[in-house]
Amino acid sequence: MNGSSPRHRTLARILVAGCTAGSVLMTTAFAQADTRVPSADRVARAAETVERVTGTADLVPGTALGDGATRVEVPADAHAARILVPATASGAVESAYGGDVVRLGLPGATDVRAATGAHGTVVYADVKEDFDLAVQPNRDGVRTLITLRDADAPTEYRFPLDLPADAETEQLEDGSVLVSRGGEHLGTFDAPWAKDAAGEAVPTDYRVEGGALVQTIRTGPNTAYPVVADPAWFIPLAIVAGRLLLTSGVKSISKHAAQRMAQRGISEQMIANAVKHGKKSRGKSAGTWKYTSGKIWVVVNNKGNVVSVGRN
Q1: Residue 178 CB neighbours (<10 A)
Q2: Domain positions in the chain
């Protein structure tokens, strides 16, 4: 992404101003006569392609709705995070927690109907001639996957964004995109990745442009097809770590802490484990506690907000 400088604190702040709800709220044009329904065999092969890369252990099963969409509830601390997977590829993947809703429109915007594979992967097969889409609700959020079937597939994909009012996107040094509102961390689009059929990494990156998250996949003459690429939305620590931190008092993660996590290669799971099992001592600032575990430390204030993290 433009403006990134590895191992420096330069951040590219982009105010998402052009994200109109109309661009991504077309979620259920189900039951139209021209809706395309791929065969069961085609769906199974598309799901198998992405699951060979992602695995299935972390997937969360959903409930089919009458309009063809799928609703998933991810267990959390105080509330369930709600994931809605659209009925057709013209819709948007919706992630909601409390009053905050983030929608990620699917690229291609076609009438292909969603179909769910045996392990819970929702597939939109044959969105275009050369690529498929898939969505995987999981314990940490939701993955939206692109499968480039051959060298004729596009290498740039636009995912329209619909964010809460006053939310900003911020490019971090590891390639991820932080979504925040003021000092509040709303979630993160994890650093992008792509893998070819030989298991080799394919260079890929994000940019935020015109109210959309744009992923570019830089295939080359030695790329083995199919290629699977993934924009993944991670819901905040307050949700993800809730299963581990029910008795620890942690309620949320600050924007500053989220930035430091990305810069220093510290995952949300590492944060959760440090607060749950690390050595506790008083922080430098009044009303804070420091948790040290292995090679990292975490500072939590008396409101239960993770305010900073670092490596020892």
Answers
A1: 21
A2: 12-231, 239-311
What Rg value do the Cα atoms of the chain yield, rounded? 20
d(CA 215, CA 202): 12
pLDDT tens, residue by residue, 80-95: 789 999 999 999 999 9
Q: Residue 78's pLDDT is what?
A: 54
- Map 277-311 to HEC letters: HCEEEECCCCCEEEEEECCEEEEEECCCEEEEEEE
Angstrom distance (rounded) from CA 126 to CA 112:
7
Q: What is the pTM of this model?
A: 0.73
- What is the per-residue pLDDT across 218-262, written as a single tens digit (0 to 9) for each? 999 999 999 999 999 887 654 444 444 444 556 677 888 888 887
Specify the fold of 239-311: YaeB-like fold (3.30.2310)
Residue 101's beta-bridge partner residues? 96
Q: Are β-strands 184-189 and 70-74 bridged in parallel, bridged antiparallel, or unpaired? A: unpaired
CA atoms of 201 and 57, how far apart (whole Å): 22
Query: How many whole angstroms separate alpha carbon 282 and alpha carbon 270?
Result: 20
Residues making up the chain, counted from first to last: 312
Beta bridge pairs of residue 178: 170, 188
Q: Which residue has the tokens 């409101």?
A: 303
* pLDDT, tens digit, 9 for 90 and up, residues 32-48: 435 677 788 999 999 99
Which tokens sit at 194? 């792509």
Q: List the one residue out of 239, 238, 232 whose CA is nearest residue 215.
A: 232
